[in-house]
Each structure stands twice: as C-alpha cells, then as structure tokens.
C-alpha cells in the first residue's frame, strides 16, 4: 500500500503494480488523462486547447436543476425531503460577502489541481469546517457547486455549507470530515478483512446509487475522494468531474484517474456504469492492498485496462472467499451490459446475520 499513502494532485500520476499486486509501486510523472486525450484526440467532444482540455468537454442534453416548484426530470432519491433546484442562499454563486467576515482561515489540509483545502473556523459558532479554494476561470467550478447543491441532503455526500468569491477565487465551505481520507486509512491498514471491505463498499455504493438516482455520474471514484467521519461514516467528495445526465444519455470525454478509469471511458462512449467499475478497482485495492492493472506509461496502463484478463487466483487470492471474487468479477467485467447493478452489489455486501462458527466469515455477507 506504499503508493496509496502518497497524495496525488488531480490525475497527474501513472501507476505501476507488480503482477501479484503486492507491494504496490508508484511511478510519479507529469502524465495525466488530460495529456493522453490531448495526444490521442479520440473524443469527439474534447476541444484540445491546453492541459485542461478534458475538463472542458461539453455534453449536450445535460439536465440542470429547475427553479423551485417546477417539474423535475427524475424523481429524487428515496426519503429525500427537499426540492431539486431550491438553492440555499448561502451556497449561491455571486455573493458579495467576503469569507473573512464569517470565517478564520487555518492551515492547509489538502491540495488539488485547481486549488487547496484549508481548515477554517466559523467566527459566530466556533465550528470547524473545510474550505476548498478554487481559482476562477474553469467551467467545472460552477458545475461542481451546482451538483453539490443538487445532491445536498444525503448523509453520504459532503455537505456544502456556503460559497464565497472574490476577484480571483471561489471558496467552498464544506463539512469537515475529521476521519481523513479513505486513502490514508488504506495505507495504514494494508489488506482489509473481507467484512471490513464489504462494509466500505456497501456504504460507498449507497451514495453512488443515490447519485445515479439523481442523474449524476461521479466519474472520479477513488479513495482520495472518499472521506471518513470520526465514527467511520463514508462521505463522497470532489464532484469536479461529475456530470448531470438525462435518462439513457451516454457521455464522452476521457476523464478520471488513470488507475480507476473504466475501459469504455478510454473508448469515448460510456454511461453511469463507469462508477461501478471504479468501485470495483477500489474493492480490489481493499482486498489485495494493490491495484489490478500495471503499466510503466499511460499507454501501457490503458492497454492493460482495455485488454488484460484479470485472474483472481493464486497468492493472496487464496485467502479471499469465492463469493467475494465473483462479486469483483461482476463489477469489473468489460461487458457493460453484464456489469453488476447497484442493487446486486448492495445485496451481496449486506450483512444479514452474524457468522456461524463453522462458516467462513466472508460467506456471511458476499
């Protein structure tokens, strides 16, 4: 898990892992999915102008949140008591109030491609939050704010508290997840016991299913974007690459993080099922302590993702139950029509009763 403990900025990384996926080795480079798409120019909707081309893809027919009280394109997630599109005034863009009037800024607790995350404290209450600073000039910033507001209300989505802006930046005040990133926990734990891995995947899939019910595809599911509360609750963050889609709509544009990207993304035509593949890669990393595909360049890594057959046998796989291997195989099939559905995954990771003494632990929940 050596590589899992190192921070990555955006998607500027290529990953190399040994065939037995243990230990995992990282190759730092300036390559990214953006570089790859710029060189290959395979996506018909990518305008290649600079290193941020992948993030400037225009998807036609994307649904936007309607005004309060108007009809909505899809029914909301189960049990959500709110109206889509009714933005909290504190999270609207264009507010003139300066963030320094309400918050004291602290140390940097994270960095990304488009800005940094700082610890901040609300002056009125003393409550601590995380403040994500994003430089202006990127279309995705407006989309990220809109999607976070669209998804607000679900306990598994990081809550957007307020939005501020000045001449140069936007400031997104969000709930502070003091448990840190799943990535860092993975670095400490190494290979997860199956029950612990099943719990993580179940909680994550509940959030991803909700996103899909709300017509949102995350497109960048990875342990860096999964945060934890002090009690261990899973919170999905970073919707910078997420897209709103209508029923039956497909997406184009090579975006995501190299190690977790689905093969159909590299072919330039895909659906929300890409999130299932990415969660499958994460499940592999939890169980094995390493990533499933190897490559000393993006081209070789992507070739492996598109063509290499995965075999869940030998080595550490012998200590993993067959139901767990079957689930992983269903999540990481290249046949999108055969890829596991949300309900199937949630059913297979649901712990219904304690294990009996003569049962393998994993057989109780996979």
Automatic annotation (TrEMBL):
Q: Which residues cross the membrane?
A: none
Indicate the segments forming the Protein kinase domain, all copies.
103-351
What domain of life does the UniProt record list for this protein's source?
Eukaryota
User: A GO molecular-function term, please?
Assistant: ATP binding
Q: Please name the CDD domains in this protein's record.
A: STKc_CAMK
SMART domains registered for this protein in UniProt: S_TKc
Question: Which InterPro entries would you find in this protein's record?
Answer: CDPK_Ser/Thr_kinases, Kinase-like_dom_sf, Prot_kinase_dom, Ser/Thr_kinase_AS
What keywords sit in the KW lines?
A: ATP-binding, Kinase, Nucleotide-binding, Serine/threonine-protein kinase, Transferase
Pfam families named among the record's database cross-references:
Pkinase
Family to which this protein belongs: Belongs to the protein kinase superfamily. CAMK Ser/Thr protein kinase family. SNF1 subfamily. Belongs to the protein kinase superfamily. CAMK Ser/Thr protein kinase family. CaMK subfamily.
Q: Which PANTHER family match?
A: SERINE/THREONINE-PROTEIN KINASE
- Job of this protein: CIPK serine-threonine protein kinases interact with CBL proteins. Binding of a CBL protein to the regulatory NAF domain of CIPK protein lead to the activation of the kinase in a calcium-dependent manner.
Protein name listed in UniProt: Serine/threonine-protein kinase PEPKR2 isoform X2
């Amino acid at each position: 898990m050596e590589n899992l403990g190192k921070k990555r900025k955006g998607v500027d990384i290529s990953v190399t892992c040994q065939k037995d996926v243990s230990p995992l080795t990282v190759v730092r480079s300036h390559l990214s999915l953006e570089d790859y798409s710029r060189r290959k120019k395979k996506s018909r909707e990518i305008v290649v102008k600079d290193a941020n081309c992948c993030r400037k893809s225009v998807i036609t027919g994307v649904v936007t949140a309607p005004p309060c009280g108007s009809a909505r394109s899809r029914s909301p997630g189960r049990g959500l008591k709110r109206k889509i599109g009714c933005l909290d005034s504190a999270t609207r863009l264009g507010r003139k109030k300066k963030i320094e009037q309400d918050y004291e800024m602290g140390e940097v607790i994270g960095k990304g491609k488009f800005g940094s995350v700082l610890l901040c404290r609300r002056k009125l209450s003393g409550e601590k939050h995380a403040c994500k600073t994003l430089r202006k000039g990127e279309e995705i910033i407006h989309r990220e704010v809109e999607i976070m507001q669209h998804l607000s209300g679900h306990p598994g989505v990081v809550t957007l508290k307020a939005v501020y802006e000045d001449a140069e930046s936007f400031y997104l005040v969000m709930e502070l997840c003091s448990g840190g990133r799943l990535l860092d926990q993975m670095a400490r734990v190494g290979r997860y016991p199956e029950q612990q891995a099943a719990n993580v995947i179940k909680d994550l899939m509940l959030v991803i299913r909700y996103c899909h019910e709300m017509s949102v595809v995350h497109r960048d599911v990875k342990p860096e974007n999964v945060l934890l509360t002090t009690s261990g609750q899973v919170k999905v963050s970073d919707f910078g690459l997420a897209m709103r889609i209508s029923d039956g709509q497909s997406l184009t544009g090579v975006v995501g993080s190299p190690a977790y990207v689905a093969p159909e993304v590299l072919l330039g035509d895909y659906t929300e099922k890409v999130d299932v593949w990415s969660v499958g890669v994460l499940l592999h990393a939890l169980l094995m302590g390493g990533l499933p595909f190897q490559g000393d360049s993006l081209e070789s890594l992507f070739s492996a993702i598109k063509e290499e057959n995965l075999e869940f046998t030998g080595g550490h796989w012998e200590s993993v139950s067959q139901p767990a291997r079957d689930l992983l195989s269903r999540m990481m099939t290249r046949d999108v029509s055969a890829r596991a559905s949300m309900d199937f995954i949630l059913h297979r990771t649901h712990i219904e009763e304690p294990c009996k003494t003569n049962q393998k632990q994993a057989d109780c929940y996979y």
